[in-house]
Amino acid sequence: MLPLEELRVYQLAMTIGDDIWNFVHAWDNFSKNTIGQQIVRAADSIAANISEGNGRYHFKESIRFCYIARGSLSETKTWLTKAQQRGLINLPDYDRLLLKINELSIKLNNYIAATSKQIDKP
Q: Which CATH superfamily includes the segment(s) 4-119?
C-alpha cells in the first residue's frame, strides 16, 4: 500500500480543503460564521477521514472512514452551491471547485472499491 501522502485521493482532498479555506478566509464575518465554518469543516473532514482510515491499518476500518469522507464530500458540495448562490464564490471559481469535487468523488469511490478487494485476499 502506498504511503498516505502519495495517494492521489488524499492529495486531491487536501487541495480542495485548502482551496475552500482560501475562499472563506476573505469573506466577511457573518459569512465566515455561517456558511464559512460549515464548508471548511466539511472540506477538511474529507482528507482527515481518509487519513484516519488509512492510519487504522485495517481494510474494513479504512473503508468505513472513506464512507464518512464521501459524506463530507457531499456536504462540501452542498455548502459550495449555497456559497455560489449567495454570491460568496463567483461562477468560474465554483465551476473549478466543482470539477475537483467531482474528480475526487470518482477517485474516492475507486479507492473504496480497490480497498474492498483487499479484504478477500488471503
A: 23S rRNA-intervening sequence (1.20.1440.60)
